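Private note to self, pasted from the team thread so I don't lose it. Backbone tokens:
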């Protein structure tokens, strides 16, 4: 008798955001006992927020492990378990984690949004403060309570102007096989208030089933890419006359690229170029390309022929810092020594590998 278990293998890379675009491996030293994988939520001032992946419950034994890690100084902090859900809501339908920074108090905050499984539309928000090393429950406010029905929040890792952002889908669209995104939700890290932001207008010629926007930052402004593959349109949220008035402005319209089966816009580089993850139509190998929107030219960054079963899973812009060296907190040195973090863009890739367990003699065979 044989039983197959799927295990997720991951690799991490650092990309130097300069004219050389050197891609180097990065060692992530953490292991999770309850999860096969972990996710890089975002990075701020050299701190990388990492959380477990998958559905979690409110029980402390199975709480989602969250770590703040500074690879430059090789120190990390494991956050305490967040509080349980309300009575009668022992299990969470989903958990979404975001990371932010409050400059006036020099405080890093982690926001966890959870949806109760047994009460339709029930959302609970908790905020962790690094300064106090505690969790507090915060009111989701009218922005989260209006609209009716279940809403699923997808973390974006986009932190700008003191706010973090989630993409939101409506449950009745998910049930018929379509993910229709209704809006963005923002959270002001200083005032701890939620607000609703309308998405840019959809292309009427595009099939609604393929509308899966990606939220990113371009030149320290919030941007929405209306499709994960080319062709796509990039919208930027720009300030209007008043200090609190913003509107969406079309920034780029990107056309398909010849000989490329698919191309995902993943990261905006500091020189104005975009990093693409591409799949050539004659090859199973995925490659990184740098796209210059003005000339519409692509430059091959690195071919990953030995990694054709790996796909990009998370990409974050990373800057070195000395955070955790000057704080009176218990920052732990990583068990392993990660490689130098001189790169600006951090790339995580993952691949599924099959592991066969033979119960007859308990021999384990790994592929």
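Design output:
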């Amino acid at each position: 008798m044989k039983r197959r278990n799927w295990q997720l293998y991951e690799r991490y890379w650092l990309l130097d955001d300069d004219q050389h675009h050197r891609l180097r491996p990065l060692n992530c030293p953490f292991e999770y006992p309850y999860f096969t994988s972990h996710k890089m939520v975002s990075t701020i001032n050299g701190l990388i927020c990492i959380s477990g992946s998958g559905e979690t419950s409110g029980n402390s034994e199975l709480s989602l492990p969250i770590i703040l890690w500074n690879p430059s100084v090789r120190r990390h902090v494991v956050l305490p378990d967040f509080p349980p859900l309300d009575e009668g809501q022992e299990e969470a339908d989903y958990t979404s984690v975001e990371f932010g920074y409050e400059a006036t108090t020099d405080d890093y905050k982690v926001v966890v949004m959870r949806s109760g499984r047994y009460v339709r539309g029930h959302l609970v928000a908790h905020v962790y403060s690094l300064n106090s090393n505690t969790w507090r429950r915060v009111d989701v406010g009218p922005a989260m309570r209006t609209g009716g029905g279940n809403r699923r929040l997808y973390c974006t890792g986009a932190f700008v102007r003191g706010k973090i952002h989630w993409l939101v889908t409506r449950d009745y669209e998910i049930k018929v096989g379509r993910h229709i995104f209704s809006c963005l939700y923002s959270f002001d890290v200083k005032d701890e208030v939620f607000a609703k932001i309308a998405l840019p207008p959809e292309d009427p010629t595009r099939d609604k089933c393929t509308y899966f926007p990606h939220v990113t930052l371009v030149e320290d402004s919030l941007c929405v890419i209306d499709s994960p593959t080319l062709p796509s349109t990039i919208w930027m949220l720009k300030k209007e006359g008043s200090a609190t008035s913003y509107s969406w402005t079309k920034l780029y319209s990107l056309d398909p690229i010849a000989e490329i089966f698919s191309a995902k816009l993943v990261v905006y580089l500091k020189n104005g170029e975009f990093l693409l993850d591409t799949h050539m139509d004659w090859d199973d190998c995925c490659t990184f390309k740098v796209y210059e929107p003005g000339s519409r030219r692509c430059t091959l960054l690195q071919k990953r022929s030995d990694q054709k079963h790996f796909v990009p899973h998370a990409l974050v812009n990373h800057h070195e810092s000395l955070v955790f060296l000057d704080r009176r907190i218990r920052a732990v040195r990583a068990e392993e020594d990660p490689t130098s973090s001189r790169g600006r863009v951090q790339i995580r890739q993952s691949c599924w590998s099959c592991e066969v367990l033979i119960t007859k003699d308990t021999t384990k065979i790994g592929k």
